[in-house]
Amino acid sequence: MSTFEMNDQQVAGLAAAICATAEAMGQEMNPGTAAIMAEDLCAYPVQVVKAALKACRFEVKGKLAMADILQRVQVADGRPGKDEAWSIAMTTNDEFETVVLTDEILLALAAAKPVLDAGDKVGARMAFNSAYERLVGQAREDNKHVNWHVSVGFDANRRTQAITKAVQMQRIPHERGQLYLADLSVAPVTEDGRAVVALLTGDVTRPSPKLREKLAAVKDSMLAMRHASAEEKTEMRIQAANELADRRALLIQQAEQLEARRAAQ
Asked: Which domain of life does this protein belong to (predicted)?
């Protein structure tokens, strides 16, 4: 359930804002109707609802309706659209990538996996979109906050990039991003910790020799792949395929656990 609850004064102010918005759109609204709409919207943050009303004034043609407000309020919850969600889901195919994804993406990917494994990518996308839209709709109806979490890849550099991007997009809090980076051993919480934080803040700092050694090891492994013989590359690809299968199995296990928790609620 949502942790947002407007107080009586805020609900009254919102009702007045709804009346004013309707008037600005050339519509007379009964104060009682506005009060009911405000009560229905009181589970959302005040600023989000006010932003939705402003968007309605610029975008909606005709009379103001509850559906117009609610649509814009729900989009502000931070859940990506189905096309972006599918793109995020497909990033999990690369075991070197660290992926930041939502509960709904994880569950929809699990639903589409049998079709994807059969080699039908078009059908898999359709199955994913259908499941994702249903899950997002249900989550929004239940006023559940978006939950972003991290699926860790093998490339340390990409871990830093993915988590830094998630922080910049406000998908995970700054403090949580620092903890992820420390827990993933991308940087210890000393001089290297400051080097990682610099990625988030833009400050200039130098990583320790140990961290530079780790980054050099990643580059060496990439060079080794380039210069490997055909037989060695085949072995590397087999190993990568096995690791990808393990990662997909873990994602499916996480999805099943999440589904079980949802069913138990």
From this structure: Bacteria
